[in-house]
Structures are given as C-alpha cells and as structure tokens.
Write a structure and sequence with these properties.
The chain is an all-alpha fold and 499 residues long. Helices cover 77% and strands 1% of the residues. A two-stranded antiparallel sheet has the order 1-2.
Length: 499
C-alpha cells in the first residue's frame, strides 16, 4: 500500500474510532426509554441542535454535488444556495420554536407521524399510518443513496472495492446509532459538522492561494468561459424559481425538523438559529468557492476531469499532506454518515412507534420499544445496503425526488398545523395526499410543456407545495374546522410559546 493511502487510512481510522466512542458514551448517558433513545430526552443544547440539523441536512451534496454544480455551470449555482439559506432561516423562525412546544403539548409526541396524529386527535390513525409509510419508504431509499456515496468514496480515493466501502460506511454508522440512539447521532453530527466546516474553509483557501488569489482565479475562469461569471446565464425565471424552491423542502424533512423537537428549551432556539445559519452560510460559500477555484485549477494543470463532482477529491489529493487528505476525506464521510444516521433513526422511530406499538403491541414497555428501535436500525441498514449494492446506481434524481416529496407532503402540513388554528384532520390528510401525489405525477407522469418533462421545466416541489396548501385550506374550511379539544391544545401551545 502506498504512503498516500497509509496516511489517509490513519486519519480515517482515527475518525471511525471517535464516532464509535461517542456512540458508546451516549449509550451509558441516555435514559433507556423511547424519549431517550429516539429523541435524546429533549435535552439537546443549541450548538449540538444547530450543527446536528446542518450536518444531517447537507450530506455529501455539500462537498461533492454543489462544488460540481459550480464547476460545471458557474455562478448560476448561487441561486440554489440562496434558496436553501432562505428556507433554512424560515424553518428556524416559523417551525423550530412552535414544533418544540407543540410536540410536548400534543401528548409528548416523539415522531412526526406521532405529532400529526396527536395534534388533530386522529382516532382513525390515518394520518399516522400514511405519514409513517411515506417516511419508511422514502427514507430507506434515501439511506441507500447516501450509502452509494460512501462506497464510491472508498473506491475512488482508497483503491478499495465498492462493496468494502459500502459495508464499512454502514457498519460504523449502525454501530453508533444502534447503541447511542438519537443522542449519539446528534453528538456525532456535531463533530461531523465541525469537520465539514473546517474542510469548507481550508480547501478553497489553499486552492485560491495556489492559483494566485481571488482576482487571478476569477480572470482565469473568465478566460475559460465568460458565461460562467453570469448569474443569469442560460436561466429563465422558471429556472431560477426551480433552483430557489429547494428551500421549500426544509419544512417537511423529518430528519431535520426532529432536531427542533429535541432541543432543550424553546428559549435556546434563537441561539441555535444563529449558530446553524452561520455554519450553513460559511459552508455553502466554501462549497461554491471550491467548485469555482476548481475550474481554474483544472485549466492551469491541464488535467482531465470527467466528473465535476470529484473536484473536492482532486484538491485533497494534490494540495495536501496525506494525513490532512485523510482528514478532508473524513469530512466527506462525515457529511454522508451524518445523513445516514439521521435517516436510520427516523425510520427506526416510525417502525417502533407508528407500526410496532400501534399494530402489534400497544402496551409494550419502554425497554421493549427501545429494543425494537435498535433491531429496526439494523434491518433498515441491511435493506439499504442491498438497494445500494449496484455501484452504477443512479441516485441523484431519487434524492431530488424524495426531497420534493417530503417537502410537498409534509411542508405545508407542518407549517399550517403550527400557525393556523382552524386547520382540521381532514385538511391535514388532504394536504399530505395532494402534495405527495402532485410530486409523483409531476415527475413520473407523461406530461410535457414546450417539449420538456414537467420536472425539467419546473421543480416538482413548487406545484406540490402550492396544491397541498390549497387542499389544506379548502378542505379544512369545507369540513367545519377542528374540534374544541383540538382548538384548546392550539391555545395552550400559543400560551407556552409566549412564556
């Protein structure tokens, strides 16, 4: 094995040991009940909440996808970063404080389906079952997509087989998630978020220095193609809306908003918001600048780059010492693993609370529910590994479609359940179903506009979000508003929010 691979493996080995060590620590620290295992006892500090939400959100897309987008298309990629930033900020302002208070008022809801059912006192369990099925199905595939990234990273950077990378990535994630639950996931996310932030600062900084500074790099990119510096190059109004609409997805992503349910106190939300948004802005800028500098670097060195999304890997290989390269590769793994662990735990939560307890053992003691949760983590991981076993898996579109599906099905439902006192159960069901079906038909239906597939013309989350919102309003008004007990819970939430 060459020196580069040895240095990289030393750094990656140390990283894996730290992650597993955190899982062991969390195992002994947390309470052995469902609130402890699935929600960390609602005792997360603002810094851990913020970086955990950010790290589980961004995945490998931050270090691979976004730099690749900037590399290929230039500064038009800024639109998607602006949309994500605005969506994340509104999520902290609108959803975070209300969801923290209301999930506790709504009979101490542990999962998002749990919250929907308790919020509207849905005795038929329709809301819980539909939302749980959406989460289990989409997140199992979503987890597989993330595992593919881990497998390909090991294959391209360490000359190990794709299958080895798949099993190592899954094995480490399952180890700390299985034992440490939500607390371990959140604590490892915090560490992973710090690593990702460092990588997004140091890589573009060293790259720009190697290229002679920002001005020299910008001039080099201009000489390659002036349109790369035009923020509206090749973009229509619809295209800009599609890119910025990614921000709408934040309101409906279970693995992100569950952090708001777990924060220690609603008074900690502003601090978490400031930390989280600062982390996000710096990270997004770093990712964009990595892709921008990469375009000039590839031109300067006359290398061939077949896949723009590997530009971060190129910099780690050619600009840094092997030990530092290993640390930077750990940043990519951190992004991938933080998302996998969050998704595993969300699916495990739904399988435990919304399937096992609801249909098989309503009186299951807390210890048995925790055991079922741990078994669910392993089962979902194995299914995801099987789905990801093909190294040629094309998962980017699946991730995009899942983001749109969650955003349209759950986004308006979450927002209006927290802000509109007249919403009722029928409106909630209608909004969720209409949002999900709109996205499915928009993506997979045989419809076109100007010769383009609908999802290529306009991102599916836009019509899905709009029609879901309309369905919630129309059906809630037509079917007579919520029961008195539901309205009373909403008033209690408002009172607690203003304390």
């Amino acid at each position: 094995m060459n020196g580069v691979s040895s240095g990289v493996l030393i750094s990656l080995g140390a990283y894996f040991l730290v992650m597993i060590g955190i899982g062991v620590y969390a195992y002994f620290k947390q309470a052995n009940d469902t609130e402890g295992y699935l929600l960390g006892g609602r005792n997360l500090g603002p810094a851990v909440t913020a970086l955990s939400a950010g790290a589980s959100d961004m995945s490998g897309w931050l270090l691979l996808g976004l730099p690749g987008y900037m590399y290929a298309d230039g500064v038009v990629s800024i639109w998607i970063a602006l949309g994500l930033t605005l969506g994340a900020l509104l999520n902290y302002l609108i959803v975070a404080p209300r969801l923290r208070v209301y999930t506790e008022v709504a009979d101490n809801a542990i999962t998002l389906p749990d919250y929907f059912a308790n919020r509207f006192e849905d005795k038929s369990h329709m809301l819980r079952v539909i939302s749980a099925l959406v989460i289990i199905l989409f997140f199992t595939v979503y987890t597989a997509a993330s595992l593919v990234g881990g497998g390909k990273l090991f294959e391209s950077s360490l000359n190990l087989s794709y299958g080895t990378g798949l099993w190592v990535t899954a094995g480490v994630v399952v180890a700390y998630t299985l034992f440490g639950g939500f607390l371990a996931v959140s604590m490892t996310d915090f560490v992973q978020g710090v690593i990702m932030l460092f990588a997004m600062v140091i890589v573009p900084l060293v790259a720009f220095t190697d290229l002679g500074g920002v001005s020299a790099t910008t001039e080099a990119v201009r000489n390659i193609d002036p349109s790369l510096l035009n923020i509206t190059s090749g973009m229509s109004i619809i295209g800009i809306i599609s890119l910025m609409a990614w921000g709408l997805g934040y309101f409906g992503q279970p693995h992100i908003i569950v952090r708001f349910m777990a924060i220690r106190s609603v008074r900690d939300v502003p601090t978490a918001r400031n930390i989280g948004m600062s982390w996000m802005i710096v990270s997004l800028i770093g990712a964009l600048m990595t892709g921008f500098a990469g375009r000039a670097y590839v031109q300067k060195t006359a290398m061939t780059l077949d896949d723009p999304e590997t530009i971060f890997l190129v910099f780690t290989q050619f600009l840094f010492h092997p030990l530092v390269s290993g640390f930077l590769l750990a940043a990519i793994l951190a992004a991938i693993m933080s998302t996998i662990s969050s998704q595993l735990l969300v699916v495990s939560s739904s399988l435990t609370k919304d399937v096992y307890k609801l249909f098989f053992d309503r009186d299951a003691p807390e210890a048995r529910q925790v055991l079922v949760g741990r078994i669910s983590v392993v089962v979902v991981a194995i299914v995801a590994i099987l789905l990801a076993s093909d190294p040629d898996s094309s998962v980017l579109n699946l991730v995009s479609n899942a983001w749109a599906g969650f955003g349209a099905a759950f986004g308006p439902l979450v927002i209006f359940s927290l802000t509109w006192r007249h919403m009722n159960r029928n409106g909630a069901v209608a909004g969720m179903v209409v949002g999900a079906l709109t996205v499915i038909l928009w993506i997979y239906g045989p419809f076109q506009i100007d010769g383009m597939a609908l999802n290529s013309w306009l991102y599916a989350i836009v019509p899905g979000f709009i029609l879901s919102t309309i369905a919630i309003f129309v059906v809630s008004i037509m079917t007579g508003g919520p029961r008195e007990s539901v309205a009373a819970k909403y008033k209690e939430m408002e009172l607690n929010l203003n304390k």
